[in-house]
Design goal:
Layout: H1 10-15, H2 19-48, H3 51-59, H4 65-71, H5 75-78, H6 81-99, H7 106-135, H8 140-168, H9 171-189, H10 205-216, H11 219-239, H12 242-245, H13 250-271, H14 281-289, H15 301-313, H16 317-328, H17 334-362, H18 365-389
């Protein structure tokens, strides 16, 4: 269980063998996702003037994650991580280059991004399972905190630069830039040491189903998964509407959201003592959704940017939940468990983006943001009530007497 023993500093992490190439490869991957997502969302919105299709182009790949988690996820622990990460990055480079082809119809773009989501379902499990090997479980929180910080920085830079490049150049040129970044990610992944798979046996659908059933069978893990997937997925539905909410300021809003997420990760991952973190789980999840209720009033851009950044601070709650998940998972399933978290979270984000785009299509983006924020708050309070009822059974809210950490 987490305690008050000193955690590794970020400097210590970079002194750990293999951490740097994994970190740099992931950085290039996030930068590519950011630039390509904004470029593609803008390209589709210009072509269709549809909030739904724009949201689907940016977050639709997440919908395919559920298929990957159902059929392919056993590969997260049964494939060599170095070759798998490099191969996935090269596949994304090729697919993103195809999206830049002139005259490509919107339906073909959506088909390509859904295929990207299918192959990406394996990437999270491989990456985070490898991180638990490189750092061990006791270093996972500090390492994941630093990765989340990097993600925030890359998104801030990517959305800011992408917004400028989309306006000055063109979305298709931005897609080619993203493809080059994916190629860089592949090259950096090849600097990792060759490691054998964490688990024996070949990847298969049966192995995937068996591991999923094993992970889902424990009430404590099941509660953590639901808390990781639902509240923040619904809030990402709000984020998927930035382009249609304010097309000229979408890059600014995405950058402010990334800045808020960065601040939340630094605070939770490094500044808060372990004994205090779990107590902030519910407040952080409430903060994640509540500011979006104000956007229904269409406040001026500076206030909107502040509200978006404030809301994204609440994403820091996921660090507490992930720490709990790692503690509850056996070593031979670490990659699969974290891959299931990643796939489920992204799938929920894709579902929420689809729902938000549909509501926006029928009403307005501001109204849809309000609906998704209210749904997120409802999910948080419902999960909290259910988890507290199961606290004595070792669920999401274990008793203090047992010395366990309460996670949101």
């Amino acid at each position: 269980m987490p305690d008050d023993t000193p955690r590794r500093t970020y400097t210590d992490l970079f002194r750990t063998p293999e951490f740097s190439p994994l970190f740099l490869s992931s950085s290039a991957n996030i930068a590519a996702q950011t630039v390509s997502g904004l470029a593609l969302g803008t390209l589709v919105f210009r072509a269709t003037n549809s909030p739904l299709l724009s949201a689907l182009s940016m977050f639709g790949p997440a919908l395919a994650q559920v298929l990957g988690a159902t059929f392919f996820l056993s590969g997260a622990d049964r494939l060599p991580p170095r070759a798998t990460l490099a191969g996935l990055a090269l596949a994304f480079a090729g697919a993103t280059s195809a999206l830049a082809l002139p005259g490509l119809p919107v339906w073909a773009m959506l088909a390509i991004v859904l295929a990207e989501g299918l192959i990406a379902s394996l990437g999270g499990g491989v990456r985070w399972g490898l991180l638990t090997e490189i750092l061990s479980k006791d270093g996972y929180l500090s390492g994941r905190s630093l990765f989340n910080m990097m993600s925030g920085v890359m998104q801030i830079a990517g959305y800011a630069a992408g917004g400028v490049l989309v306006a000055v150049l063109s979305p298709r040129l931005c897609l080619l830039l993203a493809a080059a970044l994916y190629g860089t990610s592949a090259a950096l992944a090849l600097r990792l040491t060759r490691r054998p798979p964490r688990a024996s046996g070949r990847p298969s659908v049966r192995a995937t189903w068996s591991a999923n059933a094993r992970l889902w069978s424990a009430p404590a893990r099941r509660h953590v998964y639901l808390a990781l997937w639902i509240p923040n997925g619904l809030v990402v539905g709000c984020e998927s509407l930035y382009v249609s909410y304010d097309p000229r300021a979408a890059g600014t809003l995405f950058a402010c959201a990334a800045l808020g997420m960065l601040a939340g990760d630094v605070t939770v991952g490094r500044l808060l003592p372990p004994r205090l973190r779990p107590r902030l789980g519910i407040p952080l999840l409430v903060l994640l959704a509540a500011p979006y209720l104000v956007l229904f009033l269409r406040p001026p851009l500076p206030l909107t940017a502040v509200l978006v950044a404030l809301a994204s601070f609440g994403f820091g709650a996921s660090l507490v939940q992930q720490e709990r998940l790692v503690a509850l998972t056996p070593d031979d399933l670490s990659g699969h468990a974290l891959g299931l978290h990643s796939a489920g979270m992204l799938t929920m984000q894709g579902v929420a983006a689809t729902a938000a785009g549909t509501v926006a299509q029928l009403t307005s983006p501001a109204t849809a943001m309000t609906v998704m924020a209210l749904a997120s708050l409802t999910a948080t309070f419902t999960l909290t009530a259910v988890s507290r009822r199961g606290a004595t059974d070792g669920g999401l809210w274990p008793t203090r007497a047992a010395g366990a950490v309460r996670a949101t």
